Amino acid sequence: MPRQSDPIYLDHNAGAPLRPAVREIMIDVLGDAGNASSVHGHGRKARGRIEAAREQVARLCKARTRAVTFVSGGTEANMTALTPVWQDQGAPVYLDKLFRSAVEHPSVVTGGRFAAADQVVLPVDEQGAVRLEDLEAAVRDASPSLISVMAANNETGVIQPLARIGEIAGKYGHFFHVDAVQAAGRMAIDLDAWQADVATLSAHKFGGPQGIGAVVVRSTARLPSPLMIGGGQENWRRGGTENVAAIAGFGVAGTAALEEASDTRHLEDLKARLETGLRAVCPATVIFGEGADRLANTSCFAVPGIPAETALIAFDLERVSVSSGSACSSGKVSVSHVLTAMGGAEDLARCALRVSMGWDTRAEDIDRFLELWPGIVDRLNPQARHQAA
Fold it and tell me: 152 - beta bridge partners?
């Protein structure tokens, strides 16, 4: 059991701790010389490291090895996928609009390479899931376009009906992008089952290194136009000398994540333990997306009258790291566009905390969180413990 002074990390959706096996292979690779584009022995060794990792990441996504392109992270991956110009069977295809949900990650909310006037925001229901009838009505008569929906939300953990969305995309001749950054290691990734043309990943969400991600396509006959051009690296899909150490670490993390995604019962048990404890302290606790399918590792909740920013500071002083939602907003605590899109009141959204668990989370970590929570509640809003559900 951790000592009271030991730090506890419950913010895996922002970035997971580096796995020991990942650190080991990265240190090994960093000791090597060689550019993977060189034909001598050192270069061939670097190339072998990259191709081994490509195969590992492909297995994580049930994809073909050549379908994987390494990029600098999830944001670049999304920027690459969100393009109005694709290659289909070797010919350019020009997509008319970007249809994206109201709860996407900020890197998708920006629209990528689509002009602001060409973006259409799709509403979600009170659980945070895309309204399929609204999606179909929006795209039914549209020219070929791109639909972009995340596999699972980074704030609430709500899983989208991807197979149904892919079916609608295919029915009306549209392209389909899935932001799978939060999915890896927590649910199966399967572009064929989703009928998705492209999925995007980021290694640091599941114990790989920061600064490395991937664009994974269902078929190499249908590709987004490159974002980074230059040399012929990554099969001409992403210019720039490859970060061999990070790519090798990505591959090792991907193998571990694939195994963990096959059995998430440990995380489900921890989430149930947490949410039962939260309700025992404050019956009025609101758990966002509770009625939807959610990732096993994520719980986003609020107690009315307890501001998230103050609660975060209180936990941090006790060396417990949690979040108020997305970690991609300059470190600032602000009202979540995800929770407001779900119909949440702004005052309640300002109270939202997120606990996200991962490969190193133990029951003792959740117990420590629940041990601290009543005291924090009593300091910030003593009446909250007596509010009815």
Answer: 159
| Domain range summary for the chain, segments of one domain joined by + | 8-18+264-386, 20-261
What whole-number distance in Å separates Cα of residue 103 and Cα of residue 167? 20
- The H-or-E segment that residue 298 falls in is strand 298-302
pLDDT tens per residue across span 334-386: 789 999 999 999 999 999 999 999 999 999 999 999 999 999 999 998 888 88
Topology (CATH level 3) of domain 20-261: Aspartate Aminotransferase; domain 2 (3.40.640)
- For β-strands 175-179 and 198-202, DSSP reports them as parallel
Task: Provide the annotated active-site residues.
Answer: 328
Architecture of the domain made up of 8-18+264-386: Alpha-Beta Complex (3.90)
Pairing, β 91-94 against β 286-287: unpaired
User: What is the C-alpha to C-alpha distance for residues 214 and 230, in angstroms, rounded to an integer?
Assistant: 18
Backbone angles phi and psi of 319, in degrees to 5: 65, 35
